[in-house]
Amino acid sequence: MTKPITVWLTPPGPNPWKVITILEELQVPYVIHSFKFDDVKKPPFIDINPNGRVPAIVDPNTNLLLWESGAIIQYLEEVYDTDNKLTYDSLNEKHLLNQYLHFQMSGQGPYFGQCGWFNALHSEKLPSAIDRYVKEDHRLLGVLNTVLEDKTWLVGDKCTFADLAFLPWNTRLDMALLTPPGEDPLAPYPNVQAWQKRMESRASWKKVLEVRSKLMDEQGLQPNGIPKGIKTFQEYEEHIASANEAKK
């Protein structure tokens, strides 16, 4: 009998939910060790991952402790996706899947993250940095829109781990770009928009949203990651500025 994998995570960030989505898709049992983002650089988590980034997993079935979401996804696929539900075993497709996973890890994740940081979280507004990362986000979306032309999925004829790796960050794009309420930041990229909606309709993602919402609520956070009681991004920026001033 498969023992549950422990997943260490802080609920607000997108990266852990890539891993949880894959676990849900493959129906691998897991338990979540949820903690606050403020503690990501402190013990006991720093003893799990010296880099102080989530997620990390501990798999009692193989006695493996592993961090970096891309590496975890590849591990889960190799060990637990024995029916190739989210992958292919043919040479070309295997490497194409890894190509897109690396694109997500080196492109989408870092650039969406930096855009969100400089747009909403950084204590000082730096127009040159904001301009750089906003443009990079749109460039990356343009690449995906081109790749997905006349295609349902990135590789082959089914949803794979490569597709799902992009899912959580795409759901946070409005926060990164500070998209006005009611607007879809993916609307200018119809292929990406349709692809995203296909992934969001999957049972695994609906379960992820339920789990994430519960963990966010436990930490006094709204589903969008903003503390309860704060209604707008402007209020959130003011809250962050006040907190940074108090630390000085």
From TrEMBL:
GO-annotated molecular function: glutathione transferase activity
The keyword Transferase appears for this protein: yes
Signal peptide: none
EC numbers on record: 2.5.1.18
Enzyme class: transferase
InterPro entries: Glutathione-S-Trfase_C-like, Glutathione-S-Trfase_C_sf, Glutathione_S-Trfase, Glutathione_S-Trfase_N, GST_C, Thioredoxin-like_sf
Pfam families, alphabetized: GST_C, GST_N_2
UniProt keywords, alphabetically: Transferase
Substrates-to-products reaction catalysed: RX + glutathione = an S-substituted glutathione + a halide anion + H(+)
Keyword Protein transport set for record: no
Family, as annotated: Belongs to the GST superfamily.
Name of the protein in question: glutathione transferase
Species for this entry: Aspergillus kawachii (White koji mold)
